[in-house]
Amino acid sequence: MRLLLQEIRRSPMLWLLVFVPVVFAAKQTRPEAHTMLFVLSVLAIVPLAALLSHATESVAAKTGDAVGGLLNATLGNLTELVIALTALRAGQYMLVKASIAGAIVTNSLFMLGASLLLGGLKHRVQEYNRVGARLQAGLLFLATIALLVPSAVSKADDIAWTDFTRHLSLGLAILLIVAYGLGMLFSLKTHREFFGSSSHAEEGEAPWPVSLALAVLAGVTVTVALVSEIFVESVQEAAKSFGMTQAFVGFIVVALVGGAAEMASAFSGARKNRLDLSVGIALGSAAQIALFVAPVLVLLSYFIGPAPMDLQFWPGAVVMMLIATLTANLIATTGRSAWFVGVLVIMVYLIFAMTLYLLPPRTA
Amino acid sequence: MRLLLQEIRRSPMLWLLVFVPVVFAAKQTRPEAHTMLFVLSVLAIVPLAALLSHATESVAAKTGDAVGGLLNATLGNLTELVIALTALRAGQYMLVKASIAGAIVTNSLFMLGASLLLGGLKHRVQEYNRVGARLQAGLLFLATIALLVPSAVSKADDIAWTDFTRHLSLGLAILLIVAYGLGMLFSLKTHREFFGSSSHAEEGEAPWPVSLALAVLAGVTVTVALVSEIFVESVQEAAKSFGMTQAFVGFIVVALVGGAAEMASAFSGARKNRLDLSVGIALGSAAQIALFVAPVLVLLSYFIGPAPMDLQFWPGAVVMMLIATLTANLIATTGRSAWFVGVLVIMVYLIFAMTLYLLPPRTA
Amino acid sequence: MRLLLQEIRRSPMLWLLVFVPVVFAAKQTRPEAHTMLFVLSVLAIVPLAALLSHATESVAAKTGDAVGGLLNATLGNLTELVIALTALRAGQYMLVKASIAGAIVTNSLFMLGASLLLGGLKHRVQEYNRVGARLQAGLLFLATIALLVPSAVSKADDIAWTDFTRHLSLGLAILLIVAYGLGMLFSLKTHREFFGSSSHAEEGEAPWPVSLALAVLAGVTVTVALVSEIFVESVQEAAKSFGMTQAFVGFIVVALVGGAAEMASAFSGARKNRLDLSVGIALGSAAQIALFVAPVLVLLSYFIGPAPMDLQFWPGAVVMMLIATLTANLIATTGRSAWFVGVLVIMVYLIFAMTLYLLPPRTA
After folding, report:
1. A333-337, A359-363, B270-274, B299-303, range with the lowest pLDDT
2. In chain B, fewer beta carbons within 10 Å around the N or the C end?
């Protein structure tokens, strides 16, 4: 407990934890103040995500490389998973899909681009290990193809197609999880020496004892789930009052909130000229969403949602995921970066964000 | 003749030749047993394709490098060409187009991916000559663009567009053949030293004398044509009884049957750590289908088909060809491989195969 | 003045200047002879563009590298800009858009491909600096994404969408100009040592004195504007009498006319084995059209056009720009070339040109 408090004292982001009780109190006293609840829940999720991330890494550090890598790989996007599960249980499939697509696009464009820019502003030219970046970019490419196929071949207005899309989505979900598992086998076991040190933990940062880490993991996951419920309930109304489209909220806001903790690590790595770390977090996180979180949500929708969820996305989202993946692949093949590369990648993200922000309200 | 028998004794695949008389007998006695005829014709085509391939290489080995390369390049996909011609004469344009698209996708994803996987399971990291792979991938890229343009700009339901698509397809067919010819000039004549030994013949395998090879070439081509007729007639009915969609049969089954002989060579090359050979066969064969077989079919449709054939494909097939080409280009630029690269490429193929298998029956 | 005359005597292309008075005279005497006026205006624009290009470089050479680079970068496509402005003022938005898309495609496919082919016919293998090519290809990639987004997400037949497309186009125009500015900052200031000598001026060619250059710049710009008016008025009627579609004229003819001067420099550089120069001109010019000319036209349409212009393109044009960009990016990553690479790139251009030529008259 002292270690936890010490951690909180050192990291300014964790001071935001004060908003966790505040958001629950606000929910009790003013359940109709959607905009306020939305803002408070965002402020509460960000530090919880940071705690979750640190707890996962502490457990991973103790359990040895193979199991640790596995843990990092499966729990690394726990926040996104919990938020999406809450939306899934509420039957808000459009929000679930938008947040999947948004997390892929945000991680592989904004997180990557901002890392390259921040690193490039401090260091003239930065080099990084291409092997890891290529693996993640390759997995991302595979996943994007899987996610675009149902949208590419389906015709929406037909009963036969609904069944087809559902079966296809189930099959694709299984293929993606298998590919993800084989990718871990490859990078953590058979060819691990090619991937260098991809440990997320910062140097000089002591990991927590396992018991504390496990307790935090359990407690914080539950808390995130509770806050997520307030977040999902309030997000639609809040979006209206901010004049934001639903698509913008799902794609941009949810993705930025869910990924805040990882972004902090990625940006700090880039400033310290450890671009391997930043590129690994950004592309690894995007690949994890696409190959693990998305399929798990499809599978779980058969048990906890009101109806099975398919992987048919709004065509605009498919185009955006495809371009994000292509950009990540082009970047990953070079292995060198300067500030302008970051600008280019961020610009692509801004183009998408602007498009979603301006979209007429009725769509996607 | 003794050499031919010796060859048959040594190669287990050629024992399947026994199905050639069986399929003709079955056709006479039970012309309505479509499923059985389909299975028998598949079993008969596979060894015939292997013979055809060996005969072509034997002639090529005798005629010197330039003419030999030309022969290999034009007759290398003779089986696919004969099957497609049979379907063309029967007016089954959908099957012809599906088998073109399917051969491109199967060769550049399944044959390539399985080679990389099989090689990678035996050898930790494999290197290969990028120059040859890039030429083939570049040609494939060009051809895919040519094949997607008619589908991208046309609107189906308009008389003016039918004429347009037909003229455009004819023009594209001529452009593709010219590009293919120039590509051979480049790789066999002006810059041949960059391409290394791309001989398909296995080491230690004695080529046949030219007279035997030419006789086998002529005789087997006629036999393949006759068996193809049974295959094309029975494939639709058989598909129904197996619960397979037409698209799946054209795309996957025909392509796997037609390419079986080349796959055997590619896989054996990969196991022997001669990945140059495998990548060359896979991408070269895909490029040949796209730049030689497809345009030749368009040109011949003016003489032997019931009506001119155009190059307008089902949109899903266009997407699949495009992704297959893009994947091949991404792979070809690296020059190194490990088992997981093969897994990624095969996964893309499985995504497509699953999509086609699940497709509702009425579509393409 | 003597210098100007000397220049004209030396360069055969400038003899075409005689067509400048001829076209004005013809306009007065036979205003209905559209085909003749079209041909004469083309013949008059080509040498004017060459003069404009030489004047810009002379000013740039005198003003030092940074300002000079800026001048080259903004005025390098002055001819295209003036032609497009004339069409914009006449409210011919379809022609404006076709000429933007056409200039991007023509520069990044035909100018690049013909340079690689011409260079490759003389030199066995040519190498070039990849850093500059990559920057331009990256900028082009960004711009193409910006230009395709409005077409990808919009539905044409809806009032809400018209407003959306207009706002989005305005936002995108601003983003593109910012990206272009940052790109110049990067290549001319912070990381200039990576880009080598990208001076367009031919060796041994004396720049003009600044006063002459400025006078030529002003005078010729006005003349180009006047000739452009005749060109824009006559182009539609002339197209009909040549049996060319509108799309072909906008895409191919206008782009070839506007880029003639740059093509002359690019081809001559390639023959002299200075492929850096050729690739820089081709991709730089395409990037400039996409990131500077196109957004400036959108912004100016609010002041001089009958109505604001958006960036929604005909879907076929979007596909062509996307493929041109992808091709340029694939080429730019290699850094080596032989004649066949040029053939491949030109073939892609021919596929597009043929498609546009055959297009039924009613479309785009």
Report:
1. A359-363
2. N
* A146 within 8 A of A169, measured Cβ to Cβ: no
Would you call A337 helix, strand, or coil by DSSP?
Answer: strand
How confident is the model over C72-76, as a mean pLDDT? 72
Specify the pairing of strand A336-337 against strand A126-127: antiparallel
Instruction: Determine the average pLDDT of the residues in B96-106.
Output: 92
Residue C314 in tokens: 């005909």
Nearest to A360 among C160, C178, C191 (CB): C160
Q: Which residues contact residue A53 at a Cβ distance below 8 angstroms, ignoring those fewer than 6 apart?
A: A76, A200, A261, A262, A265
Chain A residue at shortest CA distance from C169 = A355
Q: To which residue do tokens 């299975």 refer?
A: B39
* Per-residue DSSP letter, A306: S
State residue C78's pLDDT score: 85
* B vs C: CB pairs below 8 A: 68
Contacts of B302 by beta carbon, 8 Å cutoff, 6+ apart:
B308
pLDDT of B335 > 60? The answer is yes
Which H or E run includes C126?
strand C126-127
C-beta of residue A168 within 8 angstroms of C-beta of residue B355:
yes
- First-to-last alpha carbon distance for chain A, in angstroms, is 45
C-alpha distance from B195 to closest chain C C-alpha (Å)? 13
8 Å CB contact of C362 and B160: yes
Distance from CA of C6 to the nearest CA of A (A): 43
Q: Who has greater pLDDT, C266 or B113?
A: B113
**pTM score, two decimals?**
0.88
Contact residues, chain C, for B168 at CB < 8 Å: 354-355, 358
Name the residue among C134, C158, C175 with its Cβ closest to that of A351: C175
CB count in 10 Å sphere of residue C106 = 29
- SS3 assignment, position A364: coil
Of C316, C340, C362, the CB nearest to B186: C340
Q: What is the pLDDT of residues A38-87, one digit of tens each?
A: 999 989 988 888 888 888 878 777 776 666 666 776 777 888 898 899 88
Beta-carbon separation of C351 and B175 below 8 A? yes
Mean pLDDT of chain C: 84
Q: How far apart are the first and last CA of chain B?
A: 45
Could you give the CA distance from residue B169 to residue B148 in angstroms, rounded to a whole number? Answer: 11
Does C330 contact chain B (CB < 8 Å)?
yes
What tokens does B361 get? 């029956």
Cβ–Cβ contact B251 with C under 8 A: no
C161 Cβ under 8 Å from any chain A Cβ = yes
Question: Which pLDDT score is estimated for C296?
Answer: 93
Of the candidates C211, C255, C225, the residue with the CA atom closest to the CA atom of residue C82: C225
Query: CB distance from C159 to chain A under 8 Å?
Result: no
**Interacting residues of A236 by C-beta distance below 8 A, sequence separation 6+:** A246, A249
> DSSP per residue over A227-287, as a string?
HHHHHHHHHHHHHHHHT--HHHIIIIIHHHHHTHHHHHHHHHHHHTT-HHHHHHHHHHHHH
Query: Distance between alpha carbon B45 and the CA centroid of its chain, in Å?
Result: 13
Is C52 within 8 Å of chain A by CB? Answer: no
Chain C neighbors (3+ CB pairs < 8 Å): A, B
SS3 C359: coil
> Where does chain B show beta strands of DSSP type E?
126-127, 336-337
On whether any CB of chain B is under 8 Å from the CB of C322, the answer is: no
